[in-house]
Recover the amino acids of this structure.
């Protein structure tokens, strides 16, 4: 491991307290001091990865450059730290057991009885230490999913206990995130849930070094002293984490609480450099003080759970700040869109994004949304299935290809303008078998795509099985829809756009996965720019 230090982030009392945001915020502050930092997430579910999980169950599935289907927290890590992650940054119970069972079948354990301790915990520790062994990082932050006390989390907590023992003093620490609830009827903040949570952690052999306490109210000194005393931590290590206006405020709040200083002190890292977070503050300034405002319809079939489109929502935040524009997202369920109500739902929008997805449910609403954007000349952005919907709608209503469809929706369609990729046709297993990860896209000069990127070749991340059918490419070109980007090796159409439309662009890839605070994605930036222009033109016409 060399000189790499390890930080473990656990949670208690309740889920959804924000371990991922705290981990990313701490990582940002340490990185801003010149340290090389990465973050990994351990998920206690038995799926190998979230690739086959329903978005209602787990939110979006985040995809890395190397094609790993991972937890959405990796998106936070990349957006905050402006780094790329990989398969090594997300490990599940399923993957741990899969690796152990595979080794057992190969005879690697030489006939020994395979047990949770030491074999499962050793495999978890191998995953923890693997990032440290590369020599690329000064600090590895490991977030343990779930809550202390969960049956599923027990092997991970035990592995953390062992890892601390292996690493020795000053090379590892544990941050425990808890909830300090406020009882309105009593008018009091209650510390007992935190005490019980820490007690559970102690029963597993782990004394937390730092407590990060989520609360709706400020923690007075007497409350901090009480928690420090009963949880056996220094009072300076009781960190207040108030509810923030945005997730991007959290690094600033953690800096005020001196979380990064406590970490450096406990790890005996004598880094006297103040964190350079000027660019982060500039982003926040633009985000909170917009000079423009637009309304964007996000059309999808999982809109009841915004986490299903987490990266898209955050990419809009980044692009909005870049344009000094507040982006008001209107979450529109595609199943609720009909030909009769589409104008009332979408005509007053400044832009329409048709979101990714799988399957036939809600597809008709997405087709209608693509049509209204084309006909009303509203800025349009289609991602993955959203691009495919734009293609299908254009084929039916402009090229007059009756019944044109994707073979995903209608295997017997007379005009399969979207078809299953050749290499996907013999695949029977669903998990991890899509076209996944980063691929090159070559752009055509003079297109909206080229204008956005200002370069001929880009690399973007994919997650799909179906593609544009190149048999119809010339028909589309003659009709006014061009392929503005292609994969140079396979000829796969990566991007489409309309020639005679202010901004009507579709991408087969997922640009939202590469948008970060410091490098907003150019397609989202230009989409918002087009929406601002559209709104101003509309207002100008209304005032005449």
């Amino acid at each position: 491991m060399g000189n790499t230090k390890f930080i473990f982030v656990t949670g208690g009392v309740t889920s959804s307290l924000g371990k991922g945001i705290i981990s990313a915020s701490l990582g940002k502050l340490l990185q801003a001091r010149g340290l090389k930092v990465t973050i990994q997430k351990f998920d206690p579910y038995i799926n190998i990865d979230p690739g086959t999980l329903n978005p209602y169950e787990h939110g979006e599935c985040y995809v890395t450059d190397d094609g790993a289907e991972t937890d959405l927290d990796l998106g936070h890590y990349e957006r905050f730290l402006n780094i790329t992650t990989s398969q090594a940054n997300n490990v599940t119970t399923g993957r741990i057991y899969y690796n152990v069972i595979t080794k057992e079948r190969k005879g690697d354990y030489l006939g020994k009885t395979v047990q949770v301790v030491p074999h499962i915990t050793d495999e978890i520790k191998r995953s923890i230490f693997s990032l440290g062994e590369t020599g690329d990082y000064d600090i590895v932050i490991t977030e343990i999913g779930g809550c202390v006390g969960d049956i599923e989390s027990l092997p991970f907590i035990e592995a953390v206990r062992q890892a601390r023992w292996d690493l020795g003093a000053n090379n590892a620490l544990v941050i425990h995130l808890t909830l300090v609830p406020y009882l309105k009827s009593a008018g009091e903040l209650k510390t007992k849930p935190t005490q019980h949570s820490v007690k559970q952690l102690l029963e597993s052999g782990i004394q937390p070094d730092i407590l990060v306490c989520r609360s709706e109210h400020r923690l007075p000194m007497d409350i901090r002293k009480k928690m420090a005393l009963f949880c056996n931590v220094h009072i300076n290590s009781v960190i207040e984490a108030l509810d923030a206006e945005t997730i991007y405020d959290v690094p600033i709040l953690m800096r005020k609480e001196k979380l990064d200083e406590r970490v450096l002190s406990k790890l005996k890292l004598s880094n006297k450099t103040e964190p350079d977070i000027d660019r982060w503050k500039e982003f926040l300034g633009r985000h909170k003080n917009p000079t423009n405002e637009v309304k964007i319809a996000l059309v999808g079939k999982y809109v009841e759970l915004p986490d299903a489109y987490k990266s898209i929502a955050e990419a809009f935040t980044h692009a909005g700040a870049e344009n000094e524009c507040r982006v008001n997202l209107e979450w529109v369920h595609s199943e609720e869109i009909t030909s009769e109500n589409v104008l009332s739902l979408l005509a007053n929008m400044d832009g329409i994004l048709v979101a990714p997805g799988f399957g036939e449910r809600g597809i008709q609403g997405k087709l209608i949304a693509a049509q209204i954007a084309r006909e009303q000349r509203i800025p349009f952005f289609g991602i993955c299935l959203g691009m495919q919907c734009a293609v299908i709608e254009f084929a039916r209503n402009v090229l007059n290809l009756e019944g044109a469809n994707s073979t995903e929706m209608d295997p017997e369609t007379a005009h399969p303008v979207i078809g299953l990729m050749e290499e996907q046709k013999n695949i029977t297993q669903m998990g991890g078998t899509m076209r996944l990860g980063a691929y090159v896209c070559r752009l055509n000069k003079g297109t909206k795509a080229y204008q956005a990127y200002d370069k001929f070749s880009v690399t973007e991340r994919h997650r799909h099985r179906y593609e544009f059918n190149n048999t119809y490419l010339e028909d589309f070109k003659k009709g006014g829809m061009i392929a503005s980007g292609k994969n140079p090796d396979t000829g796969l159409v990566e991007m489409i756009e309309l020639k005679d439309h202010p901004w009507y662009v579709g991408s087969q890839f997922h640009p939202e996965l590469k948008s970060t605070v410091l490098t907003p994605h150019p397609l989202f930036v230009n989409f918002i720019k087009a929406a601002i222009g559209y709104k101003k033109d509309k207002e100008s016409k209304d005032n005449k």
In short: DSSP finds 18 helices and 23 strands in the chain. The two ends are 69 Å apart (CA to CA). The mean pLDDT is 92. The longest helix spans residues 522-542.
